[in-house]
Structure formats: structure tokens, C-alpha cells
Amino acid sequence: MENEVWDELAFLDYTPAHFAHYEELLERHPEGHLCMTDAETGELVATGMCVPLNLANDAALPREGWDWIVDTASAQKGHFANIIGALSISVPEAHRHRGLARDLVKAMAVVADLHGCSGVIAPVRPSGKTNYPFIEMGEYVAWGDDRGRIFDPWLRSHVAAGGTLRGVCDRSMVVEKPIEFWEDWATVESLSRDGSIPLRGGLAPLRVDHRKGVGSYVEPNVWVWHAV
Ligand SMILES: CC(C)(COP(=O)(O)OP(=O)(O)OC[C@H]1O[C@@H](n2cnc3c(N)ncnc32)[C@H](O)[C@@H]1OP(=O)(O)O)[C@@H](O)C(=O)NCCC(=O)NCCS
């Protein structure tokens, strides 16, 4: 299901942290795999993935968001875990807008409680930001809708599930690859010029640099804290 839901965003599999450790974390922490099934049909309708890690009491949540959780959980191997780091929630198109993802966020808080952890930290990928890649994340997060609610639906869901916003992690997922790598995801036909180019599914633009021969994608996310 993760592959199906994330297919459009497969470039995110190439952050060094994801590439090096994600599969290993899946293997090591089966307790962090959450699967939601339809009670009548048994059909899988949503999945979540989270991992245990240790965060010092006074430590600030870092700019490196998602990549930092993966690197840290991989290095710590679950020792002295006091917090759960959320890595993904996946709901296929057919099952969206029913509150399933919101329930999975709450389920992660239950996992935290069961393991004696004080909460869940989530580097959230605001789903509506794909339509505004050139707006700074800090500005986007402050937007409200015409009913005075948080504008972004996925951030709104996290808050509805009891989360509190803890600031932007502006280097949450960083992918730097040769320019040709990006051709499948670029929304313009040619990447022949330097500059900032929107990507399908990207929350920020790709920066193309022909002198170095690389395209760099630096994804900003938003830290959300769910206490248990
Ligand atoms: C982001 C994603 C997980 C959201 O999934 P979802 O199940 O549609 O999300 P939610 O649980 O937040 O849905 C809640 C919405 O459904 C509606 N809803 C309908 N019935 C509901 C119910 N019984 N309970 C709660 N909400 C309900 C709510 O109105 C709410 O919308 P609102 O905030 O505008 O009122 C999903 O779009 C997805 O998998 N995207 C691709 C991968 C991704 O980006 N994952 C997140 C990054 S980690």
C-alpha cells in the first residue's frame, strides 16, 4: 500500500537516510507497523509506520525532521526510547476523507503509551502545500480557511487528533541527484536551464544547477507533537 500511495512521490525514497535505513527500520520495528482493515471485508484501507527513539528532555526538534528521525532511530536501535517518531501514513485515494488517517495518528499515540513513551513527534507533510510550492512553509502554516480553520487539511487533521504545531523543519527530506534523475517528476518539459522548478507532488521547488550537474530538492515539513 505504501508503494501504491507514494508512487507519485517516489523521489523521496532517495534521501540518504531513506535509502540507507528505511527498509532496515521496517524490519526491526514490526511494533511500529499499523494496518487498518475494513471489519467486514478484511480489506486493507490504511497503513502507518512509526519508530521508537530517545529524545533528551530539553532537546529542540531539529531542522532535519524526517531524515533525522530515520538516522536517529537507526543508530539508537530502540535503546532507551522515550518517544515515537511518525514516518508515514498512507491512505489510498478510494478511502480518503473519512477520518482514517486521523484515527491512525491517534493509534500512534496508543503505540507510544503501550511502550511507555511520552508522545509522538511527526514531521508532517502538509498535503495542500503541493499547490503552493513557492510560498515559504512558515507563511503557509499560518494561513486560515474561510471558516477560520487551519488552511491545510492534513495539518488540520493532526490538530483535530490532539496535536500541537511545533514549528517548521525546513530540511526534513533532502534529495540531491543528477539532473536527469528529475525528468520523471518535473512539471516543465525541459530542465535545461538553471533555476527553481516545481515538481509533481513537491512541497518546494527543485533547484537546478547545471554547473554542478545536480537538482536539489529540500522539503520543508512541520513538526507536530502528540502527547499521550
Ligand atoms: C494525507 C492523507 C494521509 C490523509 O488521509 P485522509 O484519511 O483523507 O485524512 P483525514 O483522516 O485527515 O480525513 C479527515 C477528513 O475527512 C472528513 N471526515 C469524514 N468523516 C469523518 C470521520 N468520521 N471522522 C473524521 N473525519 C471525517 C473530515 O471532514 C476531515 O476533513 P476536514 O478536516 O476538512 O473536516 C492521505 O491523503 C494520503 O495518504 N496522502 C498521500 C500520502 C501522504 O501525504 N501522507 C501524509 C504524509 S506522512
Summarize the structure.
The protein has 228 residues and is of the alpha+beta class.
Features of this protein?
alpha+beta, 6 helices, globular, binds coenzyme A
What is the CATH first-level class name? Alpha Beta
User: Quick one: overall form?
Assistant: globular
Q: From N to C, what is the helix and strand string?
A: HHEEHEHEHHEEEE
Number of helices: 6
> For the terminal residues, how far apart are their CA atoms?
28 Å
Question: How do the helices and strands line up, and which of them pair or pack?
Answer:
Elements: H1 2-6, H2 16-28, E1 33-37, E2 44-53, H3 65-76, E3 83-90, H4 100-114, E4 119-124, H5 137-141, H6 153-160, E5 164-178, E6 195-197, E7 206-209, E8 214-227
Parallel strand pairs: 3-4
Antiparallel strand pairs: 1-2, 2-3, 4-8, 5-8, 6-7, 7-8
Residues 5, 88-91, 96-102, 125, 127, 153-154, 156-157 line the site of coenzyme A.
